[in-house]
Amino acid sequence: YSIHVDPLGPADAARLIDAECREKQVCLSNDQRAAVQNLTSGIPMVIVWSIGQIAAGFQASYVIDRLKHVSPTDDIVRFSFDGISEGIKGSEAYQILVSLALFSGSVSPAALQVVAGLADDGSKFEELLVRLLRLSLIARDESRIAILALTRTFALGELNASSGAEALRHRLLTYYVDATFNSSRWTTNELVAELENIRSAL
Predict the structure, then answer these.
(1) pLDDT tens-digit map of 13-57
(2) What is the mean pLDDT of residues 56-69?
(3) Phi, psi torsion values for 58, nearest 5 degrees
(4) Spatial CA neighbour of 179 closest among 165, 192, 166, 168
(5) What is the three-class DSSP state of 148?
(6) Which residue of 58, 125, 129, 175 has the fewest C-beta atoms within 10 A of its own C-beta?
(7) Other CB atoms within 10 A of residue 104 CB
(8) Quick check: helix, strand or coil at residue 125?
(9) Are 81 and 151 contacting, i.e. CB atoms less than 8 angstroms apart?
(10) pLDDT in tens, 75-97
């Protein structure tokens, strides 16, 4: 698992855009540079892909519009994630990734573990999260797990083509129905953090 899609910070992403524009002799306005930086989530390979498309003759406005309306079958998603998907496809790490795409926002590890079907194996779940973190496919802080917007687009496309999609959606719905009817088991902060996911699921 050596393929990474680490997002750059704003300054580094801007420098990469400048370097690619110089190398490929692409002229972008300040607004276009900002749009490329924001819409690529600072992911280097997607920045390189975008500037390369402009250098190849596509209008900057067209490339930026594609970034705004990216779909799971577009080149940008395939370019960014095909190699990674081949490395983890069919694994439990892959199951966690596509499960995470079902949530509207960030999610608690407990909720993701249940929806991904790993409720009975907490240690394995943690190991798989570490694998996805090393691939830079997910982000995690002390209490929440999140997914990059472009990664979500890819994962939703994979999910929709999966035979197990309905089972995942059923576990998601069941989890939040239970949370709604047994809210006393949750702290106020936990409920507030999951509110976006609850509304989306129900």
Answers:
(1) 999 999 999 988 999 999 999 999 998 888 887 888 888 888 888
(2) 87
(3) -75, 145
(4) 192
(5) coil
(6) 58
(7) 14
(8) helix
(9) yes
(10) 666 666 666 666 788 889 989 99
The b-or-e profile of 157-193 (16+ CB within 10 A means b, else e) is bbbeeeeeeeebeebbeebbeebeeeeeeeeeebeeb
Q: 145-147 and 138-140 as β-strands: parallel, antiparallel, unpaired?
A: antiparallel
Q: d(Cα 151, Cα 72) in Å, to the nearest integer?
A: 10
Q: Which residues of 76-88 are buried (b: 16+ CB within 10 A; e: fewer)?
A: bbeebbeebbeeb
Phi-psi region of 194 (alpha: psi -120 to 50; beta: other; left: phi over 0): alpha
**Strands in the chain per DSSP E:** 138-140, 145-147
Distance CA 97, CA 107 (A): 12
Cα separation, 169 vs 9, whole angstroms? 34
Give the bridge partners for 146, in sequence order.
139
Residue with tokens 């917007």: 149
| Dist. CA 45–CA 53, nearest whole Å | 12
Report residue 2's pLDDT band, with 50, 70 and 90 as the boundaries.
very low
Q: Is the pTM of this model over 0.90?
A: no
Instruction: Return the structure tokens found at 25.
Output: 């002799």
